[in-house]
Structure formats: C-alpha cells, structure tokens
Design goal:
The protein is 51% helix and 11% strand. It contains 25 helices and 11 strands.
Length: 578
C-alpha cells in the first residue's frame, strides 16, 4: 500500500496535505477519514499523512487552550476566576488532567472537547502539563483510529472491489464516527465475510497451481487485509505490546538473546551465512549449496567475479545461480543470475565492503516458510506454522499480452509498478517481454522472488504439518547451537514429500525477526493476525528471559539502532531484485 517517496508528485500533494492539516485543527475525525481516503485511494505514504493529522490535532488542542487562556483577560471572566468555585474547579481539573484529556479524545466533538480544553486554559492549568497530555493521547489515538479506518476501507476494497465507491465512503464515515468504531466495524466486517462479494475477481486462480503445490481453489481474496494496511499503521499495536513486554521483563532489547549464537538473535541486520555455517554434520545435506564473498572495497568488479567463478568451480556451483545479500530483508537484492556477464553486472552494482551469497538454484516451484520454536529448557522443538508461498503470476488466455493480464488480475495489478519495471529496487520486465501473449492456461511468472513485497501469495498450510516434518526440522535446528526460534525458507518438490520430511532444500534461515508468515494468508481475519503476532512477541520475550537467567546479556539500545541504520542503508544500495 505504501508507495516509494520518489514516486509521489510532491507539489500535487501539498494542497491535500495542507487541507488535511487545517481539517485536523477543526475536526479530528473528519481529518482521519480524509487521511484514510488519501492512503487507500491515492496510495499516499502513511507515515507523513499520520504525522500531519497528529500535528493538526495537537495544534487544534493547543489553540483551544489558548482561547481559554486569552479569555482570562476579559474583566467578567477575571472576576469569576477569583471566586471560590473557580478555585475548586481548577484544583479538580489539575488532579484529573490526563483522565479528562483521554475522555475528550475518546468522545470527540465540540460539545465535549472544546469546553474541556478551553477550561484548562481559562483556569490557568500549566500549559506544559496540558501539552504533554495532549501529545501523548493524540500519539496513541491517531494512528490506532487511522489503522482501524484504513483496515476497514481496505477490507471493503478487497471484498467488493473498488467500483463500490459509495459504499466504501459510507463505511469509512461510520468507522470515523467516534467511540462505536470498533463495534460497528466488526459487525460490518462479519457481514462482508458472510456474503463473499466479488469472488469472481479471484475465482479463476483456483483452477491453477504451481508444481507440487496445493491448488488455490479456496481463495476468497486477492490480498489479505493486513497486507493493505501501511506498515507504519499496521505495526502500531505490536510496538505498544513490545513496550509493555519490555516494562514487564525489565528490558526493551531482551529479544536480542533469543538465539544467543546469532548477532542480535536475528532480529535484524544479521548475517544469513552465519546461520548456514553453523549447521554441521549430516544436517548440511538439507542446505542449498552456497558460497559467500565480500565485495572488495578497492578492486574492480571483474576481479571479484573472477574469484567468485573460481570458488564456484571448487564447490560445484553452475549457472544459473541465485545472488543475494548476506544482510537482507524481504527479497531486496535477490536476483537469478544466468551467466558470468550478468554476475559481473550484479557485483558491479553491489555495495563495496558488503558480503554477498551465491547459491545453487533449486528447481522446485514449491516454496514454504517453516516456523520453528523451542524453549531453552526443552529437549525438542516443534513447528507451529507452515506457510506456502506462491510466486506472483498471471495466467494466459491466448490473446492478451502480459501487460494486459497484469492490468486485469487484481493481485498482479496491485504490484503493477514493480512488474512493469517502474521501481528502482525491482527489475520488472522489458517492453518486449510485456508484449508477449501467453498461451491459454499458461502460467507466466512475474518475479523470481516470492516475497509478498512483489505480490507473492502466502497460504496457511498448518494442516500439512506432520510428526515426520517436525522431527526433521527439530534435528536441523538442534544442529545449530542455541537456536530456539526462527523460520526456514525452503524449496520443495511436492507437498506430499515435504510432509515426509523429504525432497526439500533450505535456501535461507531467519532468526528472531522472522514472522510466522501464515498471518498474511488472505483468508485470515485481522483479529486473528494480531492475536498470532501478539502471541509470537510474548513467546519471544519468554524465551529470551530464560536465556538471560542462563547468563546471556541483551544488546544495548545503541547496538540495536546501529544495526537498523546499517541494514536500511544497505538495502537502499542493493542491485534491483528480480
């Protein structure tokens, strides 16, 4: 849902943003509705929109306080303020300041908020106390309510299509109406879940599948509700829970020791090779063959490629291969390399001094995320989540070009700018490829990577978990010292063989920062998504607390922030993915 800032027409958005700010000063819920409209309909970036609304709301609060303070200069008001009743009122307001600000925020409107905030100014409550309370409450209220409105709007768009504009606007008005937001939105969402509107938009997908993968016949939507919520809004409840868990466990960085032998436990910024190198003995047979090298800081790309080709011959790697960053996220920089010339181009665009991985291409369509969990005091772990990942694709009809098929298929169209090569961090297709006409029934793959960043489709496959599969991944996990929580990304030949713990290859291992990605299944409701992620974070803290009791020390906040900055800086410099 979020768009690259570079793609936004900044001058064109100045007017709407200014109007949004002014609206937030006058009436906050109308501003939240307008912000949701900009995010859903015009793909405006959620973070600046949220900050504009938040700033406008707080500005409006302070203006009301200022009006009350200015009224103290009128003789009539000044005489009243000297009375005993005004003194008692001031004392009561001072004692209940935060409670009253919260109540006014939850029950907005001129009949409640305006007289309350004006009274704070008129009775001389210190401005710094009032300002702090309004900023804190608005910082919680604004993103949460906007998250709810955007969630509901995206749900409507997903279920009934974008043509139903009138219904969408009406629903958003209800969602922004005040304290009944959650109850009404849950009721309307339940109705939408029952009637399954616009199923025809994705019914065709159930007729096709990837080799070795179950069919998608039960698909109800082309995208999950959670996927359509901009990340800055989606993760607000999780950040709040993280803060609460940090207070309870006396450390906000405690999860950095969930997997003590991995840098920051694999929360972010860790080396992918460090996982693979730890697996020794018989369990290495499950790894897709790989090698790694550091891009020379002062050598030409040709020299690094020459060294890479030598190492490939040593370990038996042959083109095509997969090239990807050692510090990666969501498929950024991952590319299929066909020959030495393509490898030279990739290496030439790779950040100097950074490590990259060259890996054997696994010729299976089947791809899955296997989530593993084990408590430090348990001898064996389990696989609580299995998620199938379908690479983005369209199906030919014998007369439409790839470009036309992307335009017609809802999920492909959602990520059309990536597929059409209009984003710097993904290659997409050249014009001659987009003008191809796939045969009727032919599956045309739109991206090599299967990340939902480029339109990959995730399906909950927990029903396919077997004791054989769990035993296999438990053995692999216990071959890694002190590995307790994470996700294996694998390629597999068929779902039947995977259930037997056979015919698969591990292409990547992720640590504590990995999600049980079945939460992105379009059939999963938003409430269930959050329940699952809340449970995951609580488990993460519990495992880490046990490791702290065993003598491991969490990283400092400065170490965590440095890792975030490093990862973000590298991602921006990686070559485009494919």
């Amino acid at each position: 849902m979020n768009v690259d800032v570079s793609s936004v027409d900044v001058p064109g958005f100045v007017g709407p943003y200014l109007a949004l700010f002014v609206t937030a000063i006058a009436y906050e819920n109308v501003a939240i509705l307008a912000a949701a409209y900009l995010i859903i309909e015009h793909e405006a970036s959620a973070l600046p929109v949220t900050l504009i609304v938040l700033t406008g709301i707080v500005t409006g609060d302070w203006l009301i306080y200022g009006l009350g303070a200015a009224a103290r200069h009128f003789p009539v008001v000044r005489r009243w303020l000297g009375g005993e009743r005004a003194i008692r009122s001031r004392r009561w307001l001072d004692d209940h300041l935060l409670t009253l600000v919260i109540a006014a925020r939850l029950f907005p409107g001129p009949g409640v908020l305006f007289p309350t905030f004006a009274a704070f100014g008129g009775l001389g409550i210190p401005f710094w106390r009032f300002a702090r309370a309004t900023v804190i409450t608005a910082a919680f209220y604004t993103p949460l309510v906007l998250l709810l409105v955007v969630s509901f709007g995206s749900a409507v768009a997903t279920r009934i299509g974008w043509s139903a504009r009138v219904f969408l606007v009406a629903a958003l008005v209800v969602a922004a109406a005040g304290p009944w937001t959650q109850r009404l939105s849950r009721w309307i969402w339940a109705v939408l879940e029952q009637i399954h509107l616009d199923a025809s938009a994705v019914r065709w997908l159930g007729q096709f599948t990837h080799r070795g993968m179950p069919r998608l016949a039960d698909l109800r939507a082309h995208g999950s509700i959670a996927e359509h919520i901009p990340p800055p809004l989606f993760y607000v409840p999780l950040v709040l829970q993280w803060i609460g868990l940090g207070v309870r466990y006396r450390s906000f960085t405690l999860p950095t020791i969930a997997n003590p032998n991995i840098e920051l436990a694999g929360l972010l910024g860790e080396s992918k090779v460090s996982y693979l190198d730890q697996i020794q003995g018989e369990e290495r047979k499950w790894l897709a063959p790989y090698l790694s090298l550091v891009r020379g800081p002062n050598v030409p790309a040709a020299a690094d490629v020459k060294a890479a080709l030598f190492q490939m011959s040593e370990v038996g790697l042959h083109f095509p291969i997969v090239a990807k960053p050692d510090i990666g996220w969501r498929g950024y920089g991952v590319r299929l390399i066909q020959d030495a010339d393509e490898l030279n181009t990739y290496v030439d665009g790779f950040p100097r001094g950074a490590r990259l991985i060259l890996q054997k291409t696994i010729d299976y369509d089947g791809e899955a995320g296997v989530f593993y969990l084990r408590q430090p005091d348990e001898p064996h772990g389990r696989v609580p989540s299995l998620t199938l990942r379908y690479f983005p694709f369209v199906v030919g009809d014998g007369h439409s070009t790839v470009r036309e098929l992307v335009d017609k298929e809802p999920r492909a169209n959602w990520k059309a700018q990536l597929h059409l090569g209009m984003r710097s961090q993904h290659r997409g297709f050249a014009s001659e490829q987009l003008d191809q006409v796939p045969a009727a029934g032919e599956i045309f793959r739109l991206a090599f990577i299967g990340s939902n960043r480029v339109g990959g489709l995730y399906r909950d496959a927990s029903a396919y978990i077997t004791p054989e599969l769990e035993r296999c991944f438990d053995m692999i996990s216990r071959a890694m010292p002190e590995f307790y929580i994470g996700r294996y990304d694998i390629r597999f030949a068929s779902i039947d063989r995977l259930q037997q713990g056979q015919d698969f290859a591990i292409i990547e291992i992720n640590g504590a920062g990995a999600e049980a990605i079945h939460v992105w299944d379009p059939n999963m409701g938003l409430g269930e998504v959050y329940r699952t992620l809340f449970t995951y974070q609580e488990t993460l803290f519990r495992i880490s607390a046990k490791n702290r009791d065993r003598g491991f020390t969490p990283a400092s906040m400065s170490q965590l922030l440095r890792a975030i900055r490093k990862q973000n800086a590298l991602i921006r410099r990686y070559p485009p993915s494919s």
